[in-house]
Amino acid sequence: MTRDEFDEYCQGLPAVSNVVQWGNASVWKIGGKIFAICSHWGKGEEQKISFKCSDLSYRILCEQAHIVPAPYLARAKWVQLTSGEAMTDEDIRAYIQEAYAIVSTKLTKAMRKDLGI
Q1: Which of 1, 24, 27, 97 has the greatest count of CB atoms below 10 A from its CB?
Q2: How far apart are CA 67 and CA 108, in angstroms?
């Protein structure tokens, strides 16, 4: 998945915002909370996608090739795809959708109401 495809998919989710920060990383948020990032963090020149995941998904994904605990975010159960070979675009979209759901459900009821979700 390219950065443009990543951004296009994230943009289609309800009530999200995007900011470019941390050395040109595309950071996607819901209610001010980050759920997915596309960046060049870590070793190598290839873009890397990072996202929040459930405890179980975190344990399973970290055992897969080309997927590592996300730098700076691993303690919060984030993973980073270090290669385009890590998973299919369809799977990336599914995990981004799940990350969005995890983060949005942790928002207050008032915030969810204000965002219309």
Answers
A1: 1
A2: 31
| Residues 23-35: tens digit of each pLDDT | 889 999 999 999 9
Q: Is residue 90 part of a domain?
A: yes
Contact in structure between 66 and 81 (CB atoms under 8 Å): yes
Query: The pTM is what?
Result: 0.92
Residue 16, both tokens: 């999200």
Could you count the other beta carbons within 10 Å of the beta carbon of residue 94?
12
Closest CA to 80 of 103, 94, 64, 100: 64
CATH of the domain at 26: 3.90.1150.30
Cβ-contact 49, 7 below 8 angstroms: no
Report the number of distinct structural domains present in the chain: 1
